[in-house]
Amino acid sequence: ASETKTRKWEQKQVQIKTLEGEFSVTMWASGTDD
Amino acid sequence: RRKRTAEMEGSYDWTPQLIEHGFCAAPVSCFKHAPISEIWDDITVGMKVEVENTDCDEVCEAFPDSFWVATVLRISGYRALLRYEGFGHNAEKDFWVSLCSNDIHPVGWCATIGKPLIPPNTIANKYKDWKDFLKRRLTGARTLPTDFYNKVNDSMKSRFRCGLQLEVVDKNRISQVKVATIQKILGKRLHVRYYDSPPDDNGFWCHEDSPLIHPVGWSRKIGQTLDAYPDYLERMSKKQYSEDDATEDIFIVPKNHTIPGFKFQEGMKLEAIDPLNLSAICAATVMRVLRKEFIMIRIDSYDEDASGADWFCYHSCSPCIFPIGFCAQHGLPLTPPKGYDPTTFTWDSYLTETNTIPAPIHLFNPEVPQHGFIEGMRLEAADLMDPRLVCVATITRVIGRLLRVHFDGWEDEYDQWLDCQSPDIYPVGWCDLVDHKLEGPRVINKTT
């Protein structure tokens, strides 16, 4: 627990489904621990 | 969706207070022991999430639990104010959720389980094709990490389990520890039962990071008085452990900050939070020096008790003990020794009269963490005089790392001085998150 971890914001492709059809967008999400 | 337990009946709901002008909840990141505290700064206002769409009727018949995208407008503790995407400045359908509940999801979650997003009724006719709108609103925006709920679940897991045996400060004789067994764990708070307690005894509650609990064999190692059954004493003397013994590896070890060659000594005077009245800081005496930097102190204002039953064990790095003059330096009232008048008491004359010396300042923990708490912040706090209760509270004073926690609706005499890293304080929404009952502010019924 005392380890220092750095978290990054990462770009990710996110799939969206609507009644009109599917598409993908690029969003940001907090990423993996270093 | 979580089932509400019977214990949650009557639990206080913060929601009406969250929208009050000036309401300020202490941020989750201030509570290092609280679930997902370490990643809390990754959750921000403006972030997009997928959440159940409750503004629907006919469409919902085809999709019984439809979802839509919402934006986080405000964060208060674990609670967030959300607005469905497409409402613009219309606050009509804004709603509060618990950010760690399974009611909200990262954007993209619905598509992974084949659910289409369905716009709320109020705005359903605003656009012919919602794809373009959502593309514009979501591209480049932030959302929760896909593994968010794994992180929430992992951070809620206790290091302990029911049935483990440990050594716990004896609530009826604070100078000793007593063997106890964990009966229940709720939000990493342990409900323990002393080995010899009668059936009507409610046992004792404390957080798993509490300095009041210790591994088996601790008292023997430290030199603290232990109350245990004969078989336990025999096993400890032979260092024979069972699988139901809570061992050192799952306890918090106090950090040692002492300078080699300098130690507390018996008879030294200091100021200390009264373990039996946490609203008071009192003149105190080091009664015994134990091993591994633990000391037994006695509050000088207590009635005479030659048995030593009222001594209390603090680690020398405890943030609850202070060098003499601490209260005067910060304008706080000091409870003087028994028989002394608080208006005329001075340390100088008391030290002379008792022929004692103050504990040198360099023996005390000088660390003041960057904690982020400020006066007026709201939180949930265990009532340490009845620690099965967690109550709504406000920080009314901050002195370095020391916090004065006031229980809403109660007189100041019930306040508690607590360290900023105390595991007994929690963010707004913690009780709801872990299914612990939250005691609301005391309401006094006024009769006319």
Please provide a written account of the structure.
The complex is a heterodimer of chains A (34) and B (448). Chain A has 34 residues and is mostly beta strands. Chain A is built from no helices and 2 strands. The two termini of chain A are 14 Å apart. In chain B, a hairpin with an 8-residue loop joins strand 21 and strand 22. Chains A and B meet through strand 1 and strand 2 of A and helix 3, helix 4 and strand 6 of B.
Give the fraction of residues assigned to helices of chain B. 10-25%
Oligomeric state of this protein: heterodimer
Strand order of the largest sheet of chain A: 1-2
Q: What is the chain-wise order of helices and strands of chain A?
A: EE
Shape of chain A: rod-shaped
User: Mind summarizing the main beta sheet of chain A?
Assistant: 2 strands, antiparallel
How much of the sequence lies in strands of chain B comes to 25-35%
Query: Structural class, judged by helices and strands of chain A?
Result: mainly beta
Strand segment tally of chain A: 2
Low-confidence parts of chain A lasting 5 or more residues at pLDDT below 50? none
Write the layout of secondary structure elements.
The complex is a heterodimer of chains A (34) and B (448).
Chain A: E1 7-18, E2 21-33
Antiparallel strand pairs in A: 1-2
Chain B: H1 15-18, E1 48-52, H2 58-62, E2 67-76, E3 79-84, E4 95-98, E5 104-106, H3 109-112, H4 130-138, E6 142-143, H5 148-156, E7 165-170, E8 173-186, E9 189-194, E10 204-207, E11 213-214, H6 218-222, E12 225-227, H7 230-237, E13 269-274, E14 277-289, E15 294-299, E16 312-315, E17 321-322, H8 326-330, E18 334-335, H9 347-354, E19 378-382, E20 390-399, E21 402-407, E22 416-419, E23 425-426, H10 430-434, E24 438-439
Parallel strand pairs in B: 8-12, 14-18, 20-24
Antiparallel strand pairs in B: 1-2, 1-5, 2-3, 3-4, 7-8, 7-11, 8-9, 9-10, 13-14, 13-17, 14-15, 15-16, 19-20, 19-23, 20-21, 21-22
